[in-house]
């Protein structure tokens, strides 16, 4: 079943066709990679999928529902969560509160209940603490729950960003260069973790990545973008062998 279905998606900035007639279909539970040279349009695709940019043309469907042109909050509520190339945590908040911030889509109390500390406030807060700790455990971050997010080592901050995104209970998780800035050991650990997230949550994941070891190691399907257009699409092993991909991207 298709979780994400994108047809003829395009956006222009002035005369630049940053994304041009982009099509993709991602099925439930798939681990899908979006690759391409610098400036190919990958992050722009993420910005279109999350409502940061409105497309000039095209349709985006999430789990059969048309989300084209909706704003980022509506799209997150509909079930798309993302992480960023440059980590964007609430660095002055605790690790636990970062995850709790993601939970607010699904755990609610009124301002009145919060201000006057009514019983529902304590009940919902307890549920949120438990859920957040559960997520932190999955990522081996539970021991750091009280630390300020900004004090975590870099690799752990990346994990926390993924935990916070998952707290919104998405149908589709977008990871923008999750291995950026990581050493080979951290990258290996991240690969295992992404696989685990897919298996444990039956999550559908689309990731942008330049690290070919990671892409070849965990992605089942790939789309290669070049100058805003799809150059090649299909099973990872086949795509990485495609002569056009090797010439345009791998530079061999
Ligand atoms: N808001 C914008 N206004 C004008 N041009 C933009 C805007 N956003 C992106 N672009 C242009 O669109 C093109 C695609 O950029 P994008 O960041 O999507 O590429 P990318 O494939 O993610 O690259 P990288 O791998 O370097 O992150 C680039 O030429 C970029 O300069």
TrEMBL record:
One of its GO terms (molecular function) is ATP binding. Keywords: ATP-binding, Nucleotide-binding, Transport. Residues 4-252 form the ABC transporter domain. The keyword Cell membrane does not apply. It comes from the Bacteria. Signal peptide: none annotated. Pfam families: ABC_tran, BCA_ABC_TP_C. InterPro entries: AAA+_ATPase, ABC_AA/LPS_Transport, ABC_transporter-like_ATP-bd, BCA_ABC_TP_C, P-loop_NTPase. This is ABC transporter ATP-binding protein.
